[in-house]
Amino acid sequence: MSRRISQGALAVGSIGVLIDLVDVIGSGHLEPHHAFAALVALGAGGELLKERRPGAARVLYAVASVLLVVAGSVAGYRAWASLRAGTGHDWLGLALGVLVVLYVAVGAGRLLARVSGRASKSRGHADMLGE
Length: 131
Fold this sequence. Notes:
This protein is mainly α.
């Protein structure tokens, strides 16, 4: 992503965060959709810091991932509960919940692949040493 697009996304995300803060203060309750402007801002900030401060960029990406999982899980759970109760339900929230489950499954699969790859490398290293 180009630097100019990342800067624009950071500006728009920051404005969205301010709007969401005013909305939360005015309404008195936090909704899952309030998290998405922060996701845009965190992702853009991570993209801007990727080359100069890779450690800080990884932290921003991790915070954005956790925020995505929490907000998507809350939205998906609410939609699933209303669907099971037979009341009016939110198809977008239900789809978001399904996507979050897939996101977590892919992340867990990548983590397991990385761990098993390290384990097989260390076994191969031990076999080469004759242990």
